[in-house]
Every structure is written in C-alpha cells, then in structure tokens.
Specification:
Elements: E1 5-6, E2 9-12, H1 16-27, E3 32-36, E4 51-52, H2 61-80, E5 91-95, H3 98-113, E6 119-122, H4 123-129, E7 139-143, E8 147-148, H5 151-162, E9 165-168, E10 172-177, E11 183-188, E12 191-194, E13 198-200, H6 206-212, E14 220-229, E15 239-242, H7 244-250, E16 257-264, E17 270-276, H8 287-300, E18 309-319, E19 326-329, E20 336-340, H9 346-361
Parallel strand pairs: 1-12, 2-3, 2-13, 3-9, 5-15, 13-20
Antiparallel strand pairs: 4-8, 5-7, 6-7, 10-11, 11-12, 14-17, 14-18, 15-16, 16-17, 19-20
Helix pairs in contact: 1-5, 1-9, 2-9
Length: about 375
C-alpha cells in the first residue's frame, strides 16, 4: 500500500462532474485529491456527446442549473475553448407536424420566461439554418444557448486546471467514518486518503459509493448508443433533434426509446443519437437500437443514407427516478456530499454542480438564487440495509 494521503476533500470520480468539483473546490482554496478506479473520463463522460443544453429542459431547478452552468462554461471557454472544442453552435428542435410544432412553441414560451433564448422558426426558415434538412417539416425553435464540448478533452483540461492530486487506478472500497459517524476519508486498494469531506461524483456508480457510506441513493444505469459517421464537411450546423426527444428524456419507461438527434463536430464526424433503455450494465450491442438511430437520422437528414457509419459506442447515463441529480451535503452522514445522478445532462450541468458543491464545502451560502433543496440527496426513502 502507498503512504496515507491527507487533504481537505476527496472527490470520488474523475468524470466531468468530478473534474468540475475538483476545479471549483481548488479555486475555493481547498486541497483536493481526485480518485477514480479507471482513467479520467473513463465512464459516462467518455461515452457522451458533450452537449451543454438548455433546449431540452422545462422551467424548474434543472433549467436553472443549466443556465448557471452555461455561464460558467462560457467563462472557461475564454481560456480553454479551442483545447476542449467548445462550440457555441446553438440547437434547433424541429417538429414534423403542426400539432407537434404548437406543443414545441408552447414549451418555448415557458422557457423564455425562465431566461432561455428561444426563437420560433417557420417551415420556410428551417432550410436557412440547416440547408440539408428533409423537406416538409412544420417548423421548429432555435436555441442559441445550446453549445458543445469534446467531453474527454474537457474533463482532462478541467482536472489539469484544478491542480488537484489525481489518483487514477485507485478503487475506493470504504468511506471511513469517526465513532460519531462523520466522514474522515476513504479507504482504497492503494491506501487510505484522510479528509473531513468526501464528494460522491461517481456518476452511474453513485449508488455504490453512497452505500459505502451506509446510505442509499437510487442511481440506476440507463444505456444509450451513439453512431459516429466518417469525417465530413460541416453539413449539419447545429445540434438538431426532433421534438419527441424531450419526452424521451423525461420518460420513466425502462423500455427502448429512440428519437433522432444529429450534430456535427469540430473534428468532422457527425454524431447520431439518441437511445435510452434501462437494462442494468448490459454492454451487449443492440442492432435494434442502432437501426432505429440510423432510420431517425436519415428522416431528418436524407443525405445521411449515403454516409458511412464508422463505429458505434454505448454508455450508461446515471438515471434518477425524479430526473434531478443529487447535489449537496448528505444530512445522514456529516462530511459526505453528492454530485451525481445527472442522467444525460452531466456534461452540461457539471460546472454549475461543481461551483455549488465548492460553495458548500467552503461554508458559503450558495449564490445566484439557486436553491439546492430540490437536489437534496436524502429526498428519497431510505432503503433498508
């Protein structure tokens, strides 16, 4: 075993959320150790598309967090933008039928009242934004605040900028506690790390880390596939998706759901999603899901029928029953903090989450009028041991 480490806070999980927690905690003057059993961005982050979205969120606490996070991402982009492939390209949500367009426009009205920029786009204006879209669509809504990063690069750069002591390949096996029950660090297979605070940023494995501290957190894996095309000129200018994507994100169904999501990247390939299903941690290839993704994408952009898909990959989104992450102190275990359960929005919500966690760690009152109460980790019934 290695020599025992001592610090102010241990962050468990070196994905995007853990990286952001490390960055903002370090900026608050705390000594941080970031630990992960795998590499940086080795889990959900590395299997994501890098979306920083407001377009798919209804008014409420998640949208408030997304708007805060967007402002923080924009600030980081001033120094890291090119390195993390930050693109303020905007999103376009489209509807095939007039009924769907009416619902989409009504949804946008509420978002605008909450601070989102959302502009109606008529059917004849769609092709000014996206010349290669299929004909005959009813219209859509433009969201200029939607942006994108390359997630693995972004996580790595946030870790580097934090200056945190990084320990990859270290598996946390226990949350150490005092006789009174408060946190005093973690035990790993490589040695103990002593600290008065532990942040559970383990994403899809957040439930397992919580259990190490003797509490329950109902994080479940929700599998999704992404298709990656051959490199192309920029033929898709925005993130473009069908209006039913929003309903799929909010669904509680465990069954396979797919809705077309298409976006170009700075490197050239087009990314095609999105599928969702709760099948545990089953990593089996699903031809059914991938065929549905391809079919949906070609309905939106017919030129894709002649484009080669080079590969597909899958990841597991950390699903929570009420679709809100757990962020903040866990009153059941003094010194334990949670920053997980963001489902498919963790890349976009990471900066706001890290900022809020750092404020609580530094004994500051969370600012920016964002109430942490809806994200309380103990809002769910405690499962029996």
């Amino acid at each position: 075993m290695s020599k025992r480490l001592t610090c102010d806070v241990v962050v468990v999980g070196a994905g995007m959320v853990g990286a952001a927690c490390a960055l903002y905690a370090a900026r608050a003057g705390l000594d941080v150790v970031l630990v992960d059993r795998g590499p940086v961005a080795g889990g959900t982050t590395g299997a994501g598309e890098g979306n920083l979205l407001v377009s798919d969120k209804e008014p409420g606490p998640e949208l408030d967090l997304a708007l805060l996070s967007g402002r923080l991402w924009a600030g980081l982009a001033e120094s890291l933008g090119e390195a993390i492939e930050y693109e303020a390209k905007g999103g376009v949500v489209v509807a095939a039928e007039p009924e769907g367009l009416a619902a989409l426009e009504a949804f946008a009205v509420g978002q605008r009242a909450a601070g989102v920029s959302a502009s109606p786009v008529s059917a004849d204006q769609l092709h000014d934004l996206e010349p290669h879209l299929a004909p005959g669509l009813a219209g859509g809504v433009l969201y200029p605040q939607d942006t994108q990063v390359m997630p693995a690069l972004a996580a790595a750069h946030l870790v580097r900028a934090s200056g945190a002591r990084l320990r990859t390949g270290w598996t946390v096996t226990e949350v150490l506690r005092t006789a009174e029950g408060a946190v005093r660090g973690v035990r790993t297979d490589r040695g103990d790390i002593h600290a008065p605070a532990v942040v559970n940023a383990a994403g899809t494995w957040g439930s397992a880390v919580a259990a190490l501290a003797g509490v329950s957190l109902p994080v479940l894996p929700r599998r999704g596939f992404v298709l990656v095309t051959e490199p192309l000129p920029r033929l898709v200018r925005h993130k473009v998706y069908a209006a039913d994507y929003v309903a799929d994100v909010a669904s509680d169904s465990a069954a396979l759901q797919t809705s077309p999501v298409v976006e170009g990247t700075a490197a050239g390939p087009i990314l095609i999603g999105a599928s969702r299903e709760r099948v545990g941690f089953d990593r089996s290839f699903s031809l059914l899901a991938v065929r549905a993704l391809a079919a949906g994408a070609t309905r939106l952009f017919p030129f894709l029928s002649d484009v080669r898909a080079l590969r597909t990959y899958l990841g597991f989104r950390p699903y929570m029953p009420d679709h809100l992450p757990a962020i903040g102190p866990d009153p059941r275990v003094p010194g334990l903090f949670h920053a997980c359960g963001h489902e498919g929005a963790g890349i976009g919500l990471a900066t706001g989450t890290g900022h809020l966690i750092a404020q609580v760690l530094a004994d500051k009152t969370p600012d920016l009028d964002l109430d942490l109460a809806p994200f309380r980790p103990d809002r769910f019934p405690q499962e029996p041991a």
